[in-house]
Specification:
The protein is an alpha/beta fold. Helices cover 38% and strands 19% of the residues. It has 15 helices and 14 strands. The protein has an 8-stranded mixed β-sheet, sandwiched between helices. Strand 1 and strand 2 form a beta hairpin. Helix 11 crosses helix 13. The protein is globular. It starts with a strand and ends with a helix. The mean pLDDT is 94.
């Protein structure tokens, strides 16, 4: 096919992130963000990477996602990259929840839209916004393939022993209660990039991927396939995160309802928005937490210690699940930039072959790099994630095959 460009859209409830890539060399032609959609203080920041020009900003009311995408199209057109370009092969959409049904990128049609809509009860914050972006983009370019790339798809290879909760099977099936996992595009990209860093094929290595941002998740990847991951039915399960609690005893919810008199919505808000690091110490920025620790703040230190304890517990668990580990890869905002987190997470695990070289760990860099000592039994790597490139790659591969 002659068209080689892919527009990647990540539609949130009040924002749209986008990148335009040329898949001949995976180069970025433009990127941007529309935020505060529906408010008087809407803003669009557009960066034309192909021309080398500086970023442009527009601050004006943007009523809805249709207006947002039209504004994006206008900015792209100014750089000769408009949505009407014959070089545009497809639009790839990030969709957070694909359930069990969607195991790979999928060309969107009416049936796909209906299934994404049916999954709204298990992704009420994300899937409606994703649907809005898809419908708006389709209206602007009805002739163009629209492809959904699902956050959950990479994790659909988990065996039932990992994916099932130990609750009544009929109840679980009736309400789609199982472990789906999230951040799948990141885990897929990073696990493959880690194998490449080691000079091996993905099918030759076992990798523990630690996606540590404001949202955080871990995965156990065996020979290129996910066999376990820390997030579950929703992104709440697992690691301690910026504002999410991660794992808690389910009876905490009953206790807060019966003894604390809290409603389900109040408990939901507590566990998702007022827990994790921000609940423990009032900050969810790891840089600020480390600054406070350096100044002797005991509350910040306790929050950090709880964060690391949970992280280390998952590393050990996934080592056991995999049996053999070739690499541990840190990625996302905290994983890529917080050297103290990486060092603390693997401290004391020398008997498992896991160690961090202090000098290598302290060096900052933009590309994938090893931070384990020379000759270490298990490689420890920092691998910057690239979810937009992963979405574009999957989208382009699918439309080439389809065409």
């Amino acid at each position: 096919m002659s068209a080689t460009r892919v527009l990647v859209l990540n539609s949130g409830s009040s924002s749209v992130k986008y990148q335009l890539l040329d898949m001949r060399d995976s180069s970025r032609l433009a990127s941007g963000l529309v935020e505060r959609i529906g408010e008087r203080s809407s803003r669009l920041k557009h960066t034309p990477l192909a021309t080398g020009g500086g970023s442009r900003e527009r601050s004006e009311p943007i009523a809805d996602h249709e207006a947002a995408l039209k504004a994006v199209a206008d900015e792209l057109a100014k750089d000769g990259l408009g949505l009407d370009s014959p070089e545009l092969a497809a639009i790839g959409h990030r969709v957070v929840h694909g359930g069990k049904h969607f195991t790979r990128p999928t060309v969107i049609d009416a049936a796909v839209l209906a299934e994404i809509e049916r999954l709204i009860p298990v992704a009420p914050l994300h899937n409606p916004a994703n649907l809005t972006g898809i419908r708006t983009a389709t209206a602007l370019r009805p002739d163009l393939p629209q492809v959904a790339v699902f956050d959950t798809a990479f994790h659909t290879t988990m065996p039932e022993a990992a994916a099932r909760y130990a609750i009544d099977v009929e109840t679980a099936d009736a309400h789609r209660v199982r472990r789906y996992g999230f951040h799948g595009t990141s885990h897929a990209y990073v696990s493959r990039a880690t194998a490449k860093l080691l000079g091996k094929a993905p099918e030759e290595v076992n990798v523990i991927v630690l996606h540590l941002g404001n949202g955080a998740s871990a995965s156990a990847v065996e020979k290129g396939r996910c066999v376990d991951t820390s997030m579950g039915l929703t992104p709440l399960e697992g690691l301690v995160m910026g504002t999410r609690s991660g794992d808690v005893d389910p009876a905490v919810i009953f206790h807060l309802a019966r003894v604390g008199g809290m409603s389900i919505d109040e408990i939901d808000a507590l566990l998702n928005k007022r827990s994790g690091l921000v609940g423990l110490c009032g900050d969810n920025d790891m840089r600020e937490i480390r600054r406070r620790i350096d100044e002797g703040d005991e509350q910040a230190k306790l929050a950090f210690d709880i964060y690391i304890h949970r992280l280390k517990k998952y590393i050990g668990a996934y080592y056991a699940v995999l049996g053999r580990v070739d690499a541990v890869a840190f990625t996302a905002g905290v994983g890529e930039n917080a050297a103290p987190v990486r060092a603390a997470a693997l401290a004391g695990l020398d008997s498992l072959g896991l160690a961090v070289d202090g000098e290598r760990n302290a060096v900052r860099g933009d590309g994938p790099r090893l931070i384990s000592p020379a000759g270490a039994r298990v490689a420890v790597a920092v691998v910057p994630t690239d979810e937009e490139l992963e979405i574009a790659t999957q989208t382009y591969a699918l439309v080439k095959t389809t065409n």
